[in-house]
Amino acid sequence: MAQIIGGIGTSHVPAVGAAIDHNKQNEPYWVPYFEKIAPVRAWVRAAKPDVCIIAYNDHASAFSLAVIPTFAIGVAATFPPADEGYGPRQVPEVAGHPRLAWHLAESLILDEFDMTIVNEMAVDHGLTVPLSVMFDQPEEWPCKVVPLCVNVIQYPAPTGDRCYQLGKAIRRAVDEFPGDERVLILGTGGMSHQLQGERAGLVNADFDLAFLDRIVTDPAGQAAVPHTDYLREAGSEGIELVMWMIMRGALDEQVREVHRGHHVPTSNTSNGVIVLENA
Amino acid sequence: MTTKYPRATPDRAPRDYDDIPGTYVMDGDHSRRGYALNMFCMSLNQEANRDAFRADESGYLDAYALTDDQRDAVLQRDWLGLLRLGGNIYYTFKLAIFDGLSMQQVGASMSGIEAAEFQQMMIDGGRPIEGNRTTADLGATPAEEQH
Ligand SMILES: [Fe+2]
């Protein structure tokens, strides 16, 4: 059977993608951040995932306000990088895993998570930046990807607990998947940041560090945190952190923290990363 | 105040996030106010549309059911006003990308400071949460915040 080999939580800041694409990783502004993700890259190299399930959000790229799925799963064989307004990112096309994706879609819906099934979808920085965080600049991405797209732009996003429970359902589905795939699950977005309004630039490092602690030791407690606490304390775009709960839900109750990094700022964002293994 | 447009009064019962200062939650009330505006912004994802908008901004906007204020705010690049008129930052940022602006430049404009100052604020750890949790923190009365 397929197995979950671990989970990664990471911000998916566009500027990080741009720094990688334009070879700025050695510039003074970026060195401290990239030093903090070096152990993530080393861990992923050793862990050799066959497929990554990436919980991310679309930022007005594949989806608009015309149709707003709360949870959408990509079942296609390929997903092209989206044009977000300046032409598509020059990164490899993302290869899907249709057999696993369809298994997940069917299993999750029968498990009462009413997924939207997507056969055609461009993927934006929310999905491709985490790939760059893990794999830098390969010719081809070294693993397949199942995109799990979560609405966190139109209020209300799914609750933290709903995301946590979805993660648990994903775990059940992966555990039943006939195959020997090594599956890595990612929760992306955050950490504290606010892009909009007079309060733009908000960062709450204390909130972020407490979140990193709690996602390891008290995920059910963190899952109960209401939206308004995220909006107020972590900034209006900090609500993206609910997607990390999907990743956490797919892991065992007890996890081992392999690596943690936190860096302020990358662009307008407090940037966090964590690598977890089942204990 | 960096925009002439007041904050809209929500057409719904008060909510517990209404007192978060300088923040426009994209709820149903906000979304229905800004639907056409945001969909215009979304259209700039396509190169052909960017070319058409570049050639004739005002004519291009005719295809979208914008209010006069929304149309003005687009043409004036009133970044804060666009939010107050129903815009969402992920959508309005498409217009900023079109203009070649960074998120930090737009953030500076919306918060009424210079871009260099905004950038330095981020390097220094960002806008602190202390003093920015509620409108009461800022010493503004709710009425001031709303209008
Ligand atoms: Fe995001």
Put the structure in a nutshell.
Chain A is built from 9 helices and 10 strands. With about 280 residues, chain A is an alpha/beta fold. In chain A, the strands form 2 sheets. In chain A, strands 6-3-7-2-8-1-10-9 form an 8-stranded mixed sheet, sandwiched between helices. A two-stranded antiparallel ribbon of chain A has the order 4-5.
Overall description:
The complex is a heterodimer of chains A (279) and B (147). Chain A is of the alpha/beta class. In chain A, 35% of the residues lie in helices and 22% in strands. Chain B is mostly helical and 147 residues long. Chain B is globular and about 45 Å long. Chain B folds into two domains: 26-101, Protocatechuate 4,5-dioxygenase, Chain A (Orthogonal Bundle); 102-147, no CATH class. Chains A and B meet through helix 6 and helix 8 of A and helix 1, helix 6, helix 7 and helix 8 of B. The structure holds fe (ii) ion (FE2). Fe (ii) ion is lined by residues 12, 57, 59, 126, 189, 240 of chain A.
Question: What labels describe this entry?
Answer:
heterodimer, A: 279 residues, alpha/beta, Protocatechuate 4,5-dioxygenase, Chain B, two-stranded antiparallel sheet, 9 helices, 35% helix, 22% strand, B: 147 residues, mainly alpha, Protocatechuate 4,5-dioxygenase, Chain A, 53% helix, globular, disordered C terminus, binds fe (ii) ion
